[in-house]
Amino acid sequence: DAGVTQSPTHLIKTRGQQVTLRCSPKSGHDTVSWYQQALGQGPQFIFQYYEEEERQRGNFPDRFSGHQFPNYSSELNVNALLLGDSALYLCATGTGGLGGEKLFFGSGTQLSVL
Amino acid sequence: AQTVTQSQPEMSVQEAETVTLSCTYDTSESDYYLFWYKQPPSRQMILVIRQEAYKQQNATENRFSVNFQKAAKSFSLKISDSQLGDAAMYFCAYRGYGQNFVFGPGTRLSVLP
Description:
Helix content of chain A is about 0%, strand content about 50%. Chain A contains no helices and 11 strands.
């Protein structure tokens, strides 16, 4: 049983570019949440997708957008990259939309913006 | 908005000894969940233990146990018989029902041989 998988594992971009990160949920999971973890900090909630719709959103600008596909996998897109977007981006999956208790995390994508 | 505080940026413990990591949180809700997650160098967040706020009994998972004080809004993690593999970042997290996780800033635990 595969867990939560994220790709790529590492990524280097320059300011102003756009990036797409991908997440495949754990088998049986239908809800995907994205978190940003800056160096030395705890993860910060970006948004959550359930039934292919964004259900909740944290305090992140519109440059951050996402998508969920019919197979429950998800993408995180960040436009007009800033140096401050450098962070570990974690995908977490669960079941049942907002009611699920537990989250299972992937190993993240380390994004460096130069 | 809910907040989670971990006042110990770093802790160390001797192998086989016991260590307690502190966590406090702020919420006006009565029904919620609390978690401790471990993040080793592999970066993957691993669930250590979970507590439901309506349960008075403290959760335990093998060598890991919590001291949940709801009135004080305190949720500490005790690791008994510490092992080298316990070395990691530990994050305390709060989740209101139907909401997403709020994480604390983390505590880096070192285990000394």
